[in-house]
Design goal:
With 227 residues, the protein is an all-alpha fold.
């Protein structure tokens, strides 16, 4: 289940780089993201041609049905509980909440590439690629130079604010499951890049994001040549 919260935060993500527009797209960065997408699409129960939202919710349904129970303090607000769950999840995956998003990604790539001894320049290129993709997602108030904890808290706050109230009681889910899954549905809608849709497949969203990246790089390159 720990992986699921990370899926919620990065299911929206898909591909590559632009940085300052002076940077070329990093093939290593794209490879890392494509591999991550491959892993997600091969999770048990993931339907390749199913929508992003239905697939992510299905993963949560499966875990709750299997007896998953998140640490939940009913004395706290739903928002505080979700922030705490997210923080615990990222901590368990060796991410440093006090580091910036950029620092965490760089450190992660560096660890992953030790076996192949990737040059520092390529590690930097892959990091810039992934960071630029994250920026392309156009998530409200996301700042890759701020701490991971600050970004998690902001993401959760926006996701909670977007939860649609239901007039009908839901007896098919526990109160905590309903809160978590309603948050996930709302959080996935925080992504706003051109061509993104929670009703599209993960694969289609990734392709649209890569296309948007390539357009941005080309436009910035053309603008630079015309100066």
């Amino acid at each position: 289940m720990n992986v699921l919260l990370i899926i919620t935060f990065i299911s929206a993500i898909g591909a590559a780089s632009i940085g300052n527009a002076q940077q070329q797209i990093s093939h290593e960065g794209i490879a890392y993201i494509q591999y991550a997408v491959y892993l997600v699409e091969h999770l048990e129960g993931w339907v390749f041609d199913g929508s992003l939202e239905s697939n992510v919710i299905r993963q949560y349904d499966r875990q709750f049905a299997a007896g998953y129970a998140p640490e939940w303090d009913f004395k706290l607000s739903n928002e505080e509980n979700l922030k705490n769950c997210a923080a615990r999840t990222f901590n368990k995956h060796y991410l440093n909440l006090s580091w910036s998003v950029y620092e965490n990604i760089y450190a992660g790539i560096e660890i992953l590439t030790r076996m192949v001894n990737l040059e520092k320049e390529k590690v930097l290129g892959a990091t810039r690629t992934i960071i630029d993709v994250i920026n392309l997602l156009d998530i409200p108030d996301l700042d890759v130079n701020k701490s991971l904890k600050t970004n998690i808290d902001s993401f959760v706050a926006h996701g909670v604010a977007g939860i649609e109230a239901s007039s009908e009681p839901d007896f098919t889910r526990s109160p905590v499951q309903a809160i978590v899954e309603d948050f996930v549905t709302s959080a996935l809608k925080l992504v706003r890049f051109k061509g993104y849709s929670t009703n599209a497949t993960l694969h289609a969203n990734v392709n649209n994001l890569l296309n948007e990246l390539e357009r941005n790089v080309k436009n910035e390159s053309d603008a630079k040549l015309s100066d």
